[in-house]
Here is the input.
Amino acid sequence: ATLSYDVSDELMTYATYSEGFKSGGFNPRYLAPAPNGEAIPYDPEYVTLYEVGFKYVNDSNSLRLNGAFFMNDYEDIQVSTNPDFTGGATITQNAAQAEISGMELEFTWVPNTVFILEGGMGYLNARYDELEGDVQFSASNEFARIPEWSANLAASYIIDLDGGASITPRLDWSYKSEMQGTAENDADVVQDSFQVLNANVGFTSASGDWSANLGVTNLTDEEYLLSLIHI
Here is the structure.
């Protein structure tokens, strides 16, 4: 359910309430015999979302701002864990109640017909309210693979060529703060904060019938972890 209010022709505010769930199931993979020889099940995950925000566009349509504050209230949240009884295999367990709240802000600025600047930032506060069952980590642990801070910035510039064709160089930068690799917060699988810079050059024909792009990812050769596991 969403309620929205147009403060003016340029500014709209809204409030949203929603509910959702993720199905439960059974863990299929073990490196040691499962307790009682039976597959370990996990229950459905339920979430209630509360969000308030705004959307703004100025008179000339050259600046757009979107902002949101939100809170996700989880019950029986599903977490990838590595308990002792699986012999080192990672399984899914329900970790009881949790809350993920935060804010997001993004913008697009088009000061003229050839330059575009886009960016955004986000903040997340993820915490466990209560743990239950045989989950083998502390409620004070940080969530796995959730950065507290993230940001991105991109700039592109359209260069018109003789004959009507154009090329558009673009730079994309992104940042993520430190992340835990596992629910157990194992010290040897922590991802430090990192930045990634990508570049792209696009060509559009004079007729606009075809285009081509050439891109390079990770210009600064930043090393970061794509997946994390502790054995």
